């Protein structure tokens, strides 16, 4: 769903003339609307928590989420959905933001959980995941990209506005991969 030409069976030809009707068929696959995606990092959280459930938002983090929700609401856009990481800090951030966007559907997914999609280059001293983590997290975060980052469906008539609440490494990967 990234390139309309990829959605067409180029081997299929017009029965009468034997020619391909590429322009006509391509027109049916091109998006008429735009998907607007807002990538939001979760708010500040307790980094000293041992397990995910202990890594809850700090008072400053709650204030950050509150202000983010107010700002998103002030844009006057009709948001379609909030897709968020299933980790505690992203879930809490989403709950606070969503109070300012009543009626917007929330979807939790493990695909957007924090991880190490690729080894840092240059290396960083404060963060050294096991090598196997790059393969596991990288595949999962790539799956998130392929699942969520694409053009609007050809049947979509109006622009859509979606919010993704996730993590710094996931956002970095999505932006770099998109570019």
Name its key features.
His_PPase_superfam; 5 helices; four-stranded parallel β-sheet; hydrolase; alpha/beta; Rossmann fold; mitochondrion outer membrane; 2 domains; protein serine/threonine phosphatase activity; 179 residues; 4 strands; 36% helix; 13% strand; membrane
Your description of this structure?
β2, α3 and β3 form a beta-alpha-beta unit. The model has no long low-confidence stretch (mean pLDDT 88). The longest helix is centred in the C-terminal third of the chain and has 18 residues. The protein has a four-stranded parallel sheet with strand order 1-4-2-3. It has 179 residues and is of the alpha/beta class. α2 crosses α3. 36% of the residues lie in helices and 13% in strands. It is an enzyme of class 3 (hydrolase). Belongs to the phosphoglycerate mutase family. BPG-dependent PGAM subfamily. Its EC number is 3.1.3.16. This is Serine/threonine-protein phosphatase PGAM5, mitochondrial.
Summarize the structure.
Pfam families: His_Phos_1 (PF00300). By secondary structure, the protein is of the alpha/beta class.
